[in-house]
Structures are given as structure tokens and as C-alpha cells.
Amino acid sequence: MGYTAASKICQLPGAPKPRMKKIIFLLLLCLIPAKDLFASKPLAGITGIQSDSARGRSIANLLEMHLYNILRSTNSFNQIDTAQMRTQLVRFDCLEDSCIIRFARRADIHLVLRGSVRDMRNSMEIEIYAMGTGAPYFGARIYRYHVRIPVSRLSLSTREFSYICEEHAGRFISNLLHRYRFPVPFIIRGNTAVPDYPDPLNGSFTVYRYDRSPDEGEPLRSYRNAGTVHLKNGTIESLAPGTPQPGNGDFVLLTYEKKSQYLTDFYRGRKRELVLTPWNVSDTLYIMLFTAPASASMPLVVPILGHYARGDYAGLGLWAVNAAPYLYLEADGFLNRPQKLREENRDISRNDAARYNFALYFCFAGGMSLFVDAFAQDYLHQAANYQGVQPLMGNGLSTAYLSLICGGGGHFYRGHRAWGYFYFHLNNIMMYYTLREFSRAERYNSATDSYEKETVDTTRAYRFLGAYCALKLIETIHAVLLDDRIENGELVEEQTAITPAVLFDPEGNLAFGIQGTMRF
Amino acid sequence: MKGLLVMLILTMAPFSLRAEDIDPSSTVKRVAVFTVPRTDPSLLALNREAAEYIENTFSRMGRFLPAEHHRIQWALSQSHTGQVVTEGTFSNAARLLNADLYVVISVSRSPRFAYAIMEIRGQGRTYQAIRKTWRIRSRIVRNIPLKLGREIALFHSGISLSADIIKRYDDGRFLINAGQWQGLAPGTFSIPGGGTVTLLQTGRFISLAQSSPPPGDIAHIDFGLQPDVDGGVAAINAAIERNTIANYGLGTTLLKNENAEHRYVEGLCIINPGGNLCLPGYGAFLATEYLRFQNARPDVPGLAVSVSAFLVHLTLPSAATGGRGNFFPWERDSDKSEAMQRLHIFLWGTIPFNFSVAYMDQLAHLFHTTEHLPPFFEDRNTMAAFMSFIIPGGGMFYKGHRFAGWCYYFTEISLGGYSAYNWDNGNRGKIALGALGVIKLIDIINAALIGPSYSFFSTEMDRDTSSVSLETGMYHTGDNEGVYSMSLTMPF
């Protein structure tokens, strides 16, 4: 009988039988956890992370280790020893998805994790995915995680690589648990149907029922929604109206969303502890004291010592394009300041006054946001790649302060450059027009050799001020609620594609349309 | 002891296997990928890598499932008789594997290039007509699998998804041999020819479906879905590009241990202006040394053009006034009109552009001749647009189009000069400035859209669609008999 199983797994016509016996024996050694006589949690196995270089191999090993440990820490799965399983699969030459799914299905492994690490010289690409057997997956991929991690111009030793692998393994397992559903069958114990699961289930669940009794050899069984059941301590408390009494084989789908959320929070907190300093009021105070000199020196310091020295050329380009109009306003405001115009006995328009006031604002506070952008990007990049503990970063109070005193400062501080520039422009435009509404034009009267001030529409001016305050409030709350961008790597999003389609129907007529493709 | 007993029980106990068990993956259309054996270890490794990449590409396209390795080994062992691997060996193996297609890869090397020949053959009634051969070459060995993979991705153009009904149920539902792997998900699909198919549940290679109207005796369902060829090709092109830039980029070759981007910017903004001030024209070439080119030779025509242009910048107003006007633009005399002074200021003010263009021209020449790619080449379109924004024709020089760069430079400087000279002469100056704006915009867009002219880069990125190749071979049979072969291949 063992031979039948082996040849079915491998699908080798005429495969030598004595060898298969040995393989089956070794496989079964791995599969002992799968054969619990009592209710069990889903059985998960990591079938190995492939790699294409020596460096990739080390990362793959670390990744496997962390995947195994994190999965075990959830206490939601029974696991097969990774090394043993990989050894057997390699010996079996069962390395393709199709073979592994077949193997997992027969061995009652519910969840299979696989992946690869590709060495791209300047970066490493990690791809991990999970496939599920049985309902509701029937071999389908449940989740795929593809990330590119930078490795050049960084100081990365085994410790940093281990942190990086742990972070990605944590994110993968967390996202997987968010999606994974495990079918818990009902069994009849005594005269009562109870869910066959080691932990007591609580809450409302949809009951599913297979459409037909197990058909021999059927790889995909259809099932339907049979109603809702309320469970308490692992027993049926009540049934929703119209729901039949669950019977043998009916099942509910168990979710792991709470554990997913816990893992997400845990790893986010852990990373903050590792790479950012603890929350500290004095940090905010230092930033306050440094605001005026930083803002004033921004036009020179940011492009040279900030973006250029740190190799942030995209940032340099963005700075040049975005800062130019405000630097012009600042320069114009100082060059044509009211004091100078008065010395020359020239009229002072509202724009002249507003530009001067804006120049003062931008010189001593408004430029701070671009200063923050130039340095925060680098600090957060270092933090994302575990290059030591970054000072001054990750502080909510500093975020709020920067959002209040300059446009987009809090967002730049958190690492959200696009939002930062959005608020930067919005803030500066609103600030300029608010200052303009409060500014008074002054006309030179040559007869009296004095200036006469014009009146200001205070209602309109306060409306502008109100709008500006509302903007600052929104900006500050938004910035404080955002997370710092300290995630390692860059997700490679290529899962969906929309393409035009031109088809011929059987009559030979052209049919035009669009199609969407989603990769799993 | 208890554990041993459990093990023994488990060893004796069979898995719950059923006689009629359907293996979903076995019902899918299949492809077998073979490699022509090689003894050279590097070619052997390349063979393996190419086969693996091609299998991955087939998997990504989701139409033909690659046969599993252990099955390929088994089939080859069954069909391989004698010492020489022939075409028959592969076709017999593919037949044993019941594959719809089979691919044979043969790799070879010359001192400068690595080559691969890939043949794809169809089997069975449906695919019998498929016979295609590609010949790929690359100077970067790592690109060979990628280029083969790209051809496989393109081969899938127009292969729409068609599924076979493999099991029917009494309630009108049926199983089809297509699932998530082929790009299907639960939902309702309109199928060409009318009607809808609803997928109730989808596995990796199999789905439970029902159709309206019922399928009757129909054995196949054509979903009309096309594989994501564009996405696949784009991903492969990106990988080829990464390899190519890693192979030819300044940052990974001449400036491996330095910050290439910094040196490039410093060369352009600091070293080159200094060099040109000391020695206009030739200083631009000397400044390129900062990027550590080996055995660099200047491009003399380029130097001549840049020096001539520099002299025009410097002396045109003096020449235009017959040498009577003051040489310096800030000095105006009776021989120098206000318009002429404006032109004078403009021409002297734009001398830095002349220095920059001279430098970029020499750089482009050196990138061509020494076969290197400039820094920032990963973002070459943005970089070229930016260069054109700040320097007349800068983006074209950056991408190696030297003549086009000079054309933009002369046009923009001429229009600028004309505008300055005629600024107070009715609308002429304004119209010229408008024209300059339009030309500048065209320059920027052109720089962003045009491909680089570096042939070593194009060789890697382009498809070898029209090359005719001559192949020779020499083999030894088991009887120590020499076999010589010669073939001419033309892809079409």
C-alpha cells in the first residue's frame, strides 16, 4: 500500500519500488505531526526557500528559520520540521509547485510555504508565497509577498540580515494570517455536533456543507453556505433561523485576523524599539531651538549637505522644482522690503508688504520643512535598513510641532514625501494670501512727506486665517496619525495588469475589450 | 518505544488514496524543457539556469505547465539510446511525457559572446504545426536566460485561455482543467460566441463551473483571456536592463569603489568649467579623466566644433562690429548698439553652456568607445529630460546622440541670441523667445523619449529578430566516429 502512495505522489510510471519504500518511510517520519489521532490545528510546512548565490543562500536560511519560528509563535499551526521536509523533497526531486501541491494534498498538509531569494547585486529580491490544500483553496495560492531589499552602500552583517529577514517573515505571516481560512469540520460527539478543533471556538460562524458526499478522487469539492451557527466554548449555542443542524463533514472557516493584527503590531513596535530612540520631549525642544537657523540656512544646506552629500538626487530635483517659487518670493521680499521702499519714498503695495512678511516667515520657519525632508529621508532610510539607532526620529510631539510651524514638516519628518510637498504648497499658498489680507498698503504723500495706510477688510482676513488654522489642524492630525516610514525594502507590485483585448468570435467577428490579469 | 510503534503503524497505514484520483496538474497542457548536454561546467550551469528561467516564464504566462524535473529525467532515460543525443531523443521523451510542446535549448560560447539556440516544437494534433527557432546572443551570460524567457513570453501572444471539461456532474456543474494558475478566479465570464461560464470554486489548476447555456457535448471552453505578455516582457526587460547596467555602468566598473553619481555631477559642475577656463575645448576632454576612463582618446571633430562654438560666443559681437566695438560686454561704446550689447551679454553669459556641451560631447564619445554607461542610467529618461532642461541638447548627449545634441544646442543658442538682439525690435524678440520655448520643450520631450544610442546596450536590449546565423558543430559518437555539422538559421 505504501508503494501506491509513493508512486501517486511522484507520478513516476514504472518507478523502482524499493526506493519508494525508503522514501515513504522517511516521509512518514516527517509527517508524524499530521497524524494526530485527535483534533488538530492546521498542519503547515515550509518546503524551502530557493536561492541563486552564496549570499542568497544565507538569507534564505535565515528567512526559513524566521518563518518557522514566527509561525510557531502564533500557536495556530502544527509544523513539520523544515530541514527534514526539504531534504526529502530534494531527494524526491519534488521541487515544482505542481508536485508539492500533490504531495501536500496527500499528506494532509494544509498550508505550504515556499519562496526564493534572488541576488541582484545591488539588491536582493525575496518572494514568499503560501498555497493551501483542501477547501476553500484546493491548491491555490493564498498570498504572495514580493519585496526588493537594498544591500548596496549599507553596512549589513549577519545580525542586520537576520533582522531584515525577521521583519519580512513577520510581515508575510501577518498578511497570510489575515487571509487564511481553515476549515474546521463538525464531528458528532455523543449526539451533538461539535467543531473538531483543539481550542474552544467562540462567536458566529457560517456553516458550509459539501454538495455531495466525498467522491473518490475528486480534487475539488463544491460546497455551499448552509447558515450561521453561534458557538460558545466549542459547543453550539444556537443556530440562526433556517440553519440545519450541522452534521459530520460540515465545516466552518476559522479566521486568524486577531493574530494577524497582533503580529503586525508586535513587529512594528519591535522595529521602532530597534531603530528609533524612545519618545523624548527634549528632542522636540532641540528641534524648536534649531528651527530658525535650519530654516534660514535651508537654501544652501539642503541641496549641498542634505540631498547631494547623501546621494538623494530625486530629492534634490524635487527640492529645486518645489522650492524655487518660494525662494524667489523670499528673495524678492527681502530685496524690496518696505523699509527700503520708504527710504526711496516709494509706495508700498499690499503685495510688497505681504512678500516681506512671507519672506520673514519662510526664512525663519517655512524653510524648515525642506530642511527636515533632506535629512529625515536619510535617517529613515538608515532606520529601515537597521543601520543603528537614529536620533531625533519617530517622535509624535516633534511631528506635531513641525506640522504646526511649517508646511508638510510633520509629513516629511515621518518620511511621506508626497504628502509633505502637498501640504508644503498648500500651506505656503494659504500663508501668503492670509498675510496679504492682513497687510496694509502704504501710499507716500509727498506734500506731507509721510505715508498713509490703507484699510484692511478684517472680516475677509479672519476668514483666511480661519481657513489656514483649519488646514494646520488637519495637517497636524494627519501627520501624527501616520506611521514613520521605516519598513525595510520596497514591495514589488506586479500583481494586477489591465490590458486591451482583441478577440475573434467563432463567426470570425472582431470583439474589442479590456481584460484584467491578477497574479497570485 | 511508543514513538517507534506510532511510526510503524503509520508506515503500514496507507494514505487515503483513491483509484480514480485526479491529479489536477496532470490535466493541464504541458511543456517539457530539455537542454542539449554540455561538458563544460560553465555551459552546464548556463543550460540549467536557462531551462529554469524558461520554465518560470511558462509558469508566469499560465498556458503550458512545465513538466516536473524528475519526470523529464525519467523520460530522457527511457528515450536515450546510444551516446549521441539527437532530436529524436527529445521528441520521444516529450511523447512519453505526453507534453503538448517541447523546448530544446542549446548554449555555446565564443570569446566575446554567449549564444543560445532555442527550438520549440508542438506535439499532438493541436500543436503539431508549431515549429520555431530562436537564436540569441549576448555579451552578458546572465542575460541569455532572460532573453530566451522574453521570446517565450512573446510566443504566448494570442494564445487565449481554453479549458477542457474533465468531469461532468448530474446537476449540470462540471470540472475544467484551468484554475488560479491560468489566471482564473471565481466569478462569471462572458465567453466568445455568447453565453456565460460561472466559476463557483477555483483551485490552482482546476475549477468547478456551470455555464449558461449548459455545455451539452462541448468538450472545451474558450475563455478568450490572453496571458499578460506585456507585463511579463516588461519585467524581463527590466531584469535585462539591470544586468546590463551592472555590467557596463560606471558605478560598477571604473568607479566601483567610489560614488559614481557624485563624480559625474562634480565633473560636470566643477572640474569641467575649471578645465575649460584653462584650455577651452581640450579642457573638456581633460575633465573626463575625472571619471577614470582608461586609454581615453579625444574626439577631434567634437573638439573642433566646441572650440569653434566657443570662439563664436566670445568674438561674434566684436566681429559683427568690425572689431571696433569694445571686447567686453559690460562696456558699451558708440560702435556697440544697445541690441548688440544685449547679444554680447547673452553670448558671454551662455559660455558655461558651451563648456558643458563640449564636456558632454566628449563624454558621449568616450561612453561609446570604451563601452560604458553613464551614471543615473537606471532613470535615463528622467535624467535626459533634466539634462535637456538645464543644458541645450544635454539629454541627447547623455543618451549618446551627439549630432542631435549639437543641433539642439546651436538652434537654442541661435534663437536665444536672436531674441536678445531683437528684444526691442517689435515682436521679433518675443516671437523668437516663444520659438525657443517650443524648441526647448521638444528637446526635453525628445530626450526623454528617445532610446540610448549605445550599441552595446542596444545589443542586450533588442531582440535578434533578423539575424542569420551560421552554426557549425563537431561531435564524437560512441564508436569514436567524428560527426561534423553545419547549419544556417534564419528566424522568421
Structure description:
The complex is a heterodimer of chains A (520) and B (492). Chain A is elongated, with a radius of gyration of 32 Å. In chain A, the strands form 4 sheets. A 6-stranded mixed β-sheet of chain A has the order 2-1-3-4-5-14, sandwiched between helices. In chain A, strands 7-6-11-8-9-10 form a 6-stranded antiparallel β-sheet, covered by helices on one side. In chain A, strand 6 and strand 7 form a beta hairpin. Chain A is built from 16 helices and 16 strands. Chain A folds into 3 domains: 22-180 and 259-268, TolB, N-terminal domain (Rossmann fold, 3-Layer(aba) Sandwich); 183-255, no CATH class; 276-488, no CATH class. Chain A is of the alpha+beta class. Mean pLDDT of chain A is 86; it is low at 1-18 and 32-37. In chain A, helix 11 packs antiparallel against helix 15, helix 13 packs antiparallel against helix 16 (458-481) and helix 15 (417-438) packs antiparallel against helix 16. Helix content of chain A is 50%, strand content 21%. With 492 residues, chain B is an alpha+beta fold. Chain B folds into 3 domains: 24-159, 3-Layer(aba) Sandwich (Rossmann fold); 162-222, Beta Barrel (Thrombin, subunit H); 249-461, no CATH class. Chain B contains 17 helices and 13 strands. In chain B, the strands form 3 sheets. In chain B, strands 8-9-10-7-6-11 form a 6-stranded antiparallel β-sheet, with no helix packed on it. Chain B has a 5-stranded mixed β-sheet with strand order 2-1-3-4-5, sandwiched between helices. In chain B, strands 12-13 form a two-stranded antiparallel ribbon. In chain B, helix 2 runs parallel beside helix 6 (143-155) and helix 13 (380-390) runs antiparallel to helix 16 (428-449). The longest helix of chain B has 22 residues, at 428-449. The relative contact order of chain B is 0.08. Chains A and B meet through helix 1, helix 2, helix 5, strand 15 and strand 16 of A and helix 1, strand 2, helix 3, strand 9 and helix 7 of B.
